[in-house]
Design goal:
The structure is a single chain. By secondary structure, the chain is of the alpha+beta class. Helices cover 28% and strands 38% of the residues. A five-stranded antiparallel β-sheet has the order 1-8-7-6-5, with helices on one face. Strands 2-3-4 form a three-stranded antiparallel β-sheet, with no helix packed on it. A hairpin with a 3-residue loop joins strand 5 and strand 6. Helix 1 crosses helix 3. The chain is globular and about 45 Å long.
Length: 143
């Protein structure tokens, strides 16, 4: 298994960060990485997500929601064709800090036999997409 991990400190309450993160309809207005999310953020619900990593074409996939803890965690699991080929467990975490700010973590755990073939691109282009999204979320939440 391989994992991408990015994080940033956002000087805003968890409730504000969460409300931006859960407002899927507004993703096209601000999110440079996740272009759209359709569906409901409920456990075991299927979403339709369009992402565009840096220097790549948009990709559409239909993951299932695996975690939903209000103002703390939201995650989904996507699989290419069937489990074990190329699986991605995408996780957002919001951790309140003592100073009123929050640590926002965006990470993804990749597993399956195709992961080694794509790891270099994931570690560069996809990581850049995570970081761009984190920066835009920070800017919005701190307004």
């Amino acid at each position: 298994m391989k994992e991408l991990h990015t994080e940033t400190t956002i000087h805003a309450p968890a409730s504000k960060i969460w409300s931006i993160l859960m407002d899927f309809d507004k993703y096209p207005e601000w999110n440079p990485f996740i272009l759209s999310i359709r569906g409901r953020a409920h456990l075991r619900e299927r979403l339709k997500i369009t992402v565009q990593p840096k220097d790549s074409r948009p990709m559409v996939f239909k993951p299932r929601v695996t975690m939903f803890k209000k103002e703390r965690q939201f995650a989904w699991l996507g699989q290419l064709m069937m489990a074990g080929i190329f699986d991605g467990h995408h996780i957002f975490e919001i951790e309140p800090l003592d100073n009123g700010a929050c640590r926002f973590v965006q990470r993804e755990q990749f597993s399956g036999w195709l992961v080694p073939l794509f790891w270099k691109k994931l570690d560069t282009n996809t990581r850049a997409g995570f970081e761009a999204m984190n920066a835009q979320l920070k800017e919005l939440a701190e307004k």
